[in-house]
Amino acid sequence: MVFPSILPKVAAQWLFTFYRAARKLRSHAFQLYYHNTTAKPSSVSQQSAAFSKSASIPDAADRTVVCDMHGALLRTTVLFPYFMLVACEGGSLLRALLLLCSFPLVWALGERGGAGVRVMAFVTFAGLRPRDMDLVARAVLPKHYMEALNAVVYDRLWLPARRKVVVTSAPLVMAEWFLKEYMAADVVVGCELQVVKVRRGRYFTGLLCGPAPGPELRQNALRKAFGAEGAIADVGVVRSSNPLDHLFVPYCKEVYVVRRESAKSASLPRDRYPKPLIFHDGRLAFLPTPAAMLAFFLFLPLGVILSVIRINIGIVLPYKINFLAGALFGIRFRTSGLRAPAGGKRRGVLYVCTHRTLVDPIMLTTALQKPVPTVTYSLSRLSEMIAPIKTVRLTRDRARDAETMSQLLEQGDLAVCPEGTTCREPYLLRFSPLFAELADDMEPVALDAQVTTLYGTTASGNKWLDPVAFFANPVPSYRVEFLGPVPREWTRAVGRAGAEVANWVQRRLGEALGFECTGLTRRDKYMILAGNDGVVTK
């Protein structure tokens, strides 16, 4: 355990900062309701406008924009769900439960106030490794930030701006990567977290260093953006729910206030994201607000029981019964396009499937009502043991894998997922052409899975929990659509190259599911989400 070695340092740092926080509490407690009279007034005329769909907003091209992240650039003003994502995905369920228990104190202190942020930061980050936080910042948080982007602010003020400055009330490590990589922000200003070094590595203390959210932080943002005291920004974008918004007024030529009611309907569609959101990690499939997390923890024991029952249905019961039994225990399963097999074939049919979760081949087997072996790569031993079908490991040696798959096809049908890894979003990764070089009798199968609570895939977490997490959802859903045999003119029998056939099958599956085809690979996914090449042994 690392906590005995770092707790004395954490306690010393906390006691040192507690006195300073207490001194500031009195001076800042009532500052929410009064104008900051010490700020240097600007000689430039200032404007204040309310954002709405019908608001007439001047062209912001070639301007400098200073923007609040929460409530202005994002439609939401809350911070707690994003701390919860870090606590749960970067830490553990126990840390997430502790953060949920601390919410009444955070609410009493003010979720956006300095004291509330300090409490959330301490519970979330104390003893957490910076590496774990980096993975959450790159692989988990961007999805939730993108879904909360304010389309009006993004289109009319953010995109045309020449220089972009963002002020966030959350610790800098939570937002900086997203704002610079996805939003092309020039300057990001937020709270810093203290880090200590021990024998086993570097860990966060959970304590903030530097100014907490408030007047000083916003003034530092302008000084950092322009490099001079009293500099003037062209446009300031603030949220109407924050009484400290007026602090931008002395430093901006124009100030725009984002109304809460207009922000609710200003979501940014997926096709207009700054960058395509193809990969993301983490188990939680919802934004973990306090109410949602309370419901999650109350449902979790029942979800685990349901998961065990549902997994055993697939292992123990015959195929003709498990379909009905699964439906009785809340599994939604839909299949279409299934045809009677043609007779007189010497070799088996190669079913080419999309890869959404670990149970794709099992769902294919359920639809066909017969066991179909599948080839896998880097599958956990537990998943192999509980699988109700035959699984054969590939080695990534092309010649050996080709021989293995050919032998399996001689014995009967075979299922293969040529993407090589799962993808949660509506995209298809590049198909490996090996399958197209081994068989002419192929049938694409479009599989898609829907979850509401827990994702059944992970890149950086415990992969052996993937089937447990998927079946722990209240109502896991699967769609299996058979698209018919690959036409002869698109097989190797007429001289088509393997890559050409693989691309055709990928496009066919993409059209059936409404997914976009990409050239990204398994290695690309794991390098982005886990920092490795995707070889997982556990």
What does it look like?
The protein has helices at 3-29, 80-91, 93-101, 103-109, 114-125, 130-139, 141-147, 151-158, 172-181, 215-226, 260-263, 290-316, 319-328, 360-368, 381-386, 398-411, 466-471, 498-513, 522-529; strands at 47-51, 64-68, 163-171, 187-198, 201-209, 233-239, 252-258, 332-336, 350-353, 374-376, 391-393, 414-416, 427-428, 442-450, 477-482, 516-517. The chain is of the alpha/beta class and 538 residues long. A hairpin with a 2-residue loop joins β4 (187-198) and β5. The chain starts with a helix and ends in a 9-residue tail after the last helix.
Quick structural summary:
40% of the residues lie in helices and 17% in strands.
What labels describe this entry?
5-stranded mixed beta sheet; Rossmann fold
Secondary structure elements and pairings:
Layout: H1 3-29, E1 47-51, E2 64-68, H2 80-91, H3 93-101, H4 103-109, H5 114-125, H6 130-139, H7 141-147, H8 151-158, E3 163-171, H9 172-181, E4 187-198, E5 201-209, H10 215-226, E6 233-239, E7 252-258, H11 260-263, H12 290-316, H13 319-328, E8 332-336, E9 350-353, H14 360-368, E10 374-376, H15 381-386, E11 391-393, H16 398-411, E12 414-416, E13 427-428, E14 442-450, H17 466-471, E15 477-482, H18 498-513, E16 516-517, H19 522-529
Parallel strand pairs: 1-7, 2-3, 2-6, 3-4, 6-7, 8-15, 9-12, 9-14, 10-11, 13-16
Antiparallel strand pairs: 4-5, 14-15
